[in-house]
Amino acid sequence: MAAFWHDPNVRMVFWALVKILVILQAMLGVVSYMIYAERKIAGHMQARVGPNRVGPLGLFQPIADVAKLFFKEEFIPDGANKVIFHIAPMLAVIPALIVFSVVPFGPQDALRVTDLNVGLLLFLAMSSIGVYAIVLGGWSSNNKYALLGGLRSSAQMISYELPMGLSCIPVILLAGSLSLVEIVRMQEHWWFVATPFGLLAFAIFMITALAETNRAPFDLPEAEAELVAGFHTEYSSMKFGLFFLGEFANVISISCIAVTLFLGGWNGPWLPDAFKFVWFFLKLAALLFFFIWVRWTYPRLRYDQLMNLGWKVLLPLALANVLVTAIVVWWRAQG
Amino acid sequence: MTEYVPVLLFLLVAIGFAGGTIGLSSLIVPRRRNAVKNSSYECGVEPVGDALQRFTVKFYLVAVLFILFDIEAVFLYPWAVTFRRLGLYGLIEMALFIVILFVGYVYLLRKRALEWD
Amino acid sequence: MTLALFAAFAALLVGCSLMVILHRNPVASALFLVLAFCSLAGLYLLLHAEFVAMVQVIVYAGAIMVLFLFVIMYLNLRHDVEQGIAVAVRRGAGWILGILLLAETVAFFKGRWAEGPVSAPDLAPVAGNTQAIGQVLYTRYLFPFEITSVLLLVAMVGAVVIAKGRGPGLHPAAPAADAAADAKAAAPDHAGGEA
To answer: What's the mean per-residue pLDDT of chain C?
Structure first.
């Protein structure tokens, strides 16, 4: 047994599993309380109080919600494709979770699951897989609203994936690497968001992040006024819960990537290395608040406005930004 | 390639978590089915026709254009990583690449292929 | 370890590929193809081709298969499957192509190609796989790379011409217009906005 434990491979797998389970638990906790925060903040923004019945200040509300979801009746509509109907909500969560495996929370090796040479590409690959949850959920329900919602949102997500991928390229140009750890290291003295093209790339990234996670003002897939609930119209019980969890897990993972790419990751003044991760989580919290803030501030876009913004504004802007950044990087290398 | 093992583990854990949640809840939730409840939702009216319809060709066009621009973006990643080493040479060749594709983009605009109305 | 992973990915790849052609539901076939592409990405990783593995997922699983699914799901071909002589012709063509492919594979494995590249390309040691690809692609293979942009341009024009016809204005192809009308008839308030 002792020999088994001293095998470096076994130790690596063990510690990786420990980190993965910790991240999973932390993510669930953050999601629960982000939903609570969203309801509280929304309440206060609209001069209401928000949830305040379950526990002090309504703090146990998320627990009550999860318990409720677990015991809700589950049903599958007639004519639905049963297998795909079950796979779709799982696909909403899995890619969002895998992104966390490359996020560096702090400078120490212990604070990240792994560091890949192509970490940024893993994030982009996972966000391109995320489309399937909505397409399949909408199609397999055998419901007109679900189908329309799925079609709309898959077109939306693929349209905004382009500017999202392109807005990462200025960062790669500045850092010269696709490894997220390396990208954070390059921002030790100067965050990428504090350069003009970095700021533009950050703005594009955040707008596309709102669209990729189907959050307001880009929540057309579930535009309740016209599509009932969009792709998850027929979903109930924990399968609906997974779609819900997937949306928030996506918000968190995309915010983690935004912090890493543009806001300097764990870098920040004053704190010693051992506590640098606090900066990461402070920035993450600020971005999560941004997501909530935007949702309760902007009205939903019309579909043609949404597609125009993606294809006619963000795409050319992101491409031009790539060229401008390249010119500046080259110019600086000369001088 | 050992740095990819944790990603594989994460994939397995994520699949286990998602499958486990659905499996666990399906063990305990009540199921009281009847024909009306199981019919697909259409604002309380009897469902009309088949849910699967044909849709306007624009959605396919968006998907095709997405593939094309996605491939363009894929070419940009290795270029961006090696840009410092390539220098002016790299800048000019990528500018040429993007300009050729920009011609296509202008064509799309002129043909009103990106309009939604 | 590597061998076990290779066996797992390879088995997954072969199994999924078989399911692609054996499954009766076209959507399930497409999903198995997605899974096959992902396991192929795993095989690329085992070959230390990180960049290719990620691009495999981004382009094939994330872009091309989405188009496939769009076509399968939303074109709703159920009622248009031909019968009789057309099926026989298609089957015959399938068999001939399959036999040709098999012959090609045999020739491939008997020939010298199966031995792999004769000499490894002379590369300066670089930080990673992506850097290595960038260094070769944008210097030695510059011309094919630039031609790719022309290829993409042609594809773009082709897609627009097929989807919209040659007229100057906006003319959705006839079947799409029919479909829009159908959708309107079925769900007056909602489908109309989409079409």
So the answer is: 77
State whether residue A224 sits within 8 Å of chain B by CB.
Answer: no
Interchain pair A20, B18: CB under 8 A = no
Flag whether B73 is in a domain. Answer: yes
Which residue among A101, A151, A233 places its CB closest to the CB of B6?
Answer: A101
* Chains touching chain B, criterion 3+ CB pairs below 8 Å: A, C
User: Could you tell me if A125 lies within 8 Å of chain B, comparing CB atoms?
Assistant: no
Last residue of a domain, one of C31, C59, C76: C76
Residues C71 and C5 in one domain: yes
**Is C23 part of a structural domain of the chain?**
yes
Please indicate, yes or no, if residue B8 is contained in any of the structural domains. Answer: yes
For residues C1 and C72, state if they share a domain: yes
Closest residue on chain C to A165 (Cα): C58
CATH at C17: 1.20.120.1200
List pLDDT tens digits, range A248-271: 999 999 999 999 999 988 888 888
**Residue B26 structural domain:** 2-110
Q: What residue numbers bound the domain in which C159 lies? A: 129-190
Q: Percentage of chain C with pLDDT > 70?
A: 70
Residues of B in contact with A101 (CB under 8 A): 6-7, 10
Q: Is residue C109 part of a domain?
A: no
Residue C15 lies in a domain: yes
Chain B residue numbers touching C172 (CB-CB < 8 A)? 56-58
Q: Are A252 and A280 in contact (CB under 8 A)?
A: no
Closest CA in chain B for residue C56? B74
Would you state the structure tokens that stand for residue C1, as one six-digit string?
A: 């370890």
CA–CA distance, B34 with A219 (Å, rounded to integer): 32
Tally of domains in chain C: 2
| Tens-digit pLDDT profile for residues C27-57 | 889 999 999 999 999 999 888 888 999 999 9
pTM of the model: 0.87
Helix A237-262 and helix A82-99: axis angle, to 10°? 30
Q: Provide, as residue numbers in chain C, all residues whose Cβ is less than 8 Å from the Cβ of B52.
A: 73-74, 76, 78
**How near does any CA of chain B get to the CA of C114, in Å?**
25
B37 to chain C, closest Cα gap in Å:
20
**SS3 string of A271-299?**
CCHHHCHHHHHHHHHHHHHHHHHHHCCCC
**Structural domain count of chain B:** 1
Residues of chain B found within 8 Å of residue A70, distances taken between Cβ atoms? 24-25, 28-29
The reply to whether A313 touches chain B by the CB within 8 Å rule is: no
Cβ count near A33 (within 10 Å):
14
Query: What interface predicted TM-score (ipTM) does this complex get?
Result: 0.88
Residue C195 lies in a domain: no
pLDDT in tens, C91-117: 889 899 999 999 988 888 777 665 665
Looking up residue B105, the CATH number of its domain turns out to be 1.20.58
